[in-house]
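Propose amino acids for all 440 sites.
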């Protein structure tokens, strides 16, 4: 099975599936790329121009110095680059516009050509800008339940009696005993459903008071040290000791919102019949990305081995407002999420699966056992997505460094403070924050 593109009938006139070569052009021969573009519901001329783009090998910024290229790619959206330099028609730009949505939370109309170059999008292969790629493990190492097991492993280490077992294999199916989390004789106590509302030093400055709300009551704990590991933008509202400059630095980032859909299927025969395990949909569907979940078996947890067995589909939806700069899209998307109901999604999901896999035997009524939607108004930490961003900004340099400055016995963690959206960012932030406090 391979990656596919689903062109929906309401947008493209007829429902069509093709392989998705957008980020893997090198895996396809020229002939295969021609066949794929010719199968797309586009005009013959648009198909031909898309084929030329996918084939690569053209320097669309010919005549520019390396420095000029860099200046241009950092300050031009990829969609503009496709239009003004790569001579791509509107229909092709539309197909590509949302092709990196789950990572950016906005379409290419708001994200730079530099990002497209970094991630190897079509038309950028001959641009003379040197990109430093870090060494990354392939995106296959994960627990079956994702980062949940990372958190569970940490809890088990801190409070062993809360989760039985001691290996990676026995972690996934282990049942947590929540009653053990906050026992008075624990050396570490985890208090759930307790929202901090005020954090400040005592008048002598050698302790910190944290006021929190639990079941409608305001309570207080006092400690020698505090690490605030929440969405950093809340810190100015919780911590009156943060300076105006620090608050202004924190305000320069905002989290990226999204909705993660998890669809339980009774079988995945239609996926195999169609020949795809993953789909990008450039048209009018909510979940423009969906895929069969990663096949991970661990301990007693076994991934579906046969197409007749139940399976989970993971799907991404990015609420946003195309036309605005990326950060404004994230804020607008968050506001939209607050107004959306489950029913807004449900009909769309049913139509999506009908159109995409109906002709391969998928029957939503029969084959879809359940839909779970997790709204993440504050999803990914901001990593300077956008266009015209200061090129010096990145994980190790940017306003977030000033934003995470220690405030006496209060240190600041969370992936926001690293400008890095992934769990290693959160772990690095925690390590730095605790080290700051231990050094006092
Ligand atoms: C759907 C999804 C998929 C992801 N997939 C991956 C992946 O595959 N790989 C990867 O590396 N990363 C992934 N991430 C990112 C990863 O989950 C985050 O980087 C990581 O969870 C960040 O950890 P954190 O401690 O910074 O913040 P969080 O995990 O957000 O923790 C912050 C905690 O603070 C609590 N909190 C906030 N305000 C208060 C308050 N006032 N009082 C008390 N508590 C408060 C929150 O309830 C929350 O529990 C994904 C994220 C999402 C949302």
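Proposal:
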């Amino acid at each position: 099975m391979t990656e596919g593109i689903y062109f929906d009938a309401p947008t493209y006139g007829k429902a069509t599936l093709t392989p998705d070569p957008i980020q893997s052009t090198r895996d396809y021969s020229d002939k295969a790329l021609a066949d794929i573009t010719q199968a797309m519901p586009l005009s013959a001329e648009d198909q031909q121009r898309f084929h030329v783009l996918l084939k690569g090998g053209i320097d669309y910024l010919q005549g520019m110095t390396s420095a000029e290229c860099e200046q241009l790619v950092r300050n031009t959206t990829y969609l503009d680059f496709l239009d003004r330099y790569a001579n791509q028609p509107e229909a092709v730009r539309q197909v590509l516009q949302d092709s990196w949505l789950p990572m950016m939370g906005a379409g290419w109309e708001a994200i730079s050509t530099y990002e497209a170059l970094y991630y190897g999008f079509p038309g950028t292969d001959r641009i003379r800008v040197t990109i430093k790629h870090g060494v990354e493990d392939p995106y296959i190492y994960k627990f079956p339940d994702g980062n949940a097991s990372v958190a569970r492993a940490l809890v088990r280490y801190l409070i062993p009696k809360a989760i039985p077992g001691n290996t990676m294999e026995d972690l996934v199916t282990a049942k947590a005993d929540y009653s053990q989390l906050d026992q008075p004789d624990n050396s570490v106590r985890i208090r759930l459903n307790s929202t901090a509302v005020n954090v400040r030093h005592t008048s002598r400055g050698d302790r910190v008071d944290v006021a929190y709300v639990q079941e409608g009551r305001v309570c207080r704990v006092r400690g020698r040290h505090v690490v605030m590991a929440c969405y950093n933008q809340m810190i100015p509202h919780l911590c009156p000791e943060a300076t105006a400059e620090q608050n202004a630095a924190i305000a320069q980032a905002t989290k990226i919102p999204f909705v993660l859909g998890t669809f339980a299927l009774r079988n995945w025969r239609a996926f195999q019949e169609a020949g795809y395990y993953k789909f990008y949909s450039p048209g009018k569907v909510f979940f423009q990305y969906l895929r069969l979940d990663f096949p991970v078996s661990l301990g007693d947890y076994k991934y579906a081995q046969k197409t007749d067995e139940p399976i989970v589909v993971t799907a991404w939806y990015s609420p946003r407002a195309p036309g605005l700069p990326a950060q404004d899209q994230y804020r607008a998307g968050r506001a939209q999420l607050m107004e959306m109901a489950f029913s807004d999604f449900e009909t769309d999901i049913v139509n999506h699966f009908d159109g995409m896999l109906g002709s391969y035997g998928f029957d939503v009524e029969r084959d879809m056992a359940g839909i779970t939607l997790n709204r993440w108004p504050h999803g990914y930490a901001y990593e300077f997505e956008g266009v015209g961003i200061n090129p010096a900004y990145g994980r190790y340099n940017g306003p977030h460094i000033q934003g995470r400055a220690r405030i006496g016995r209060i240190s600041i963690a969370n992936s926001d403070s690293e400008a890095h959206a992934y769990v290693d960012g959160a772990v690095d932030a925690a390590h730095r924050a605790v080290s700051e406090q231990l050094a006092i």
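Residues 146-147, 195-196, 229-231, 234, 260, 376, 379, 414-415, 421-423, 425-426 surround flavin-adenine dinucleotide (CB under 6 Å). The two ends are 56 Å apart (CA to CA).
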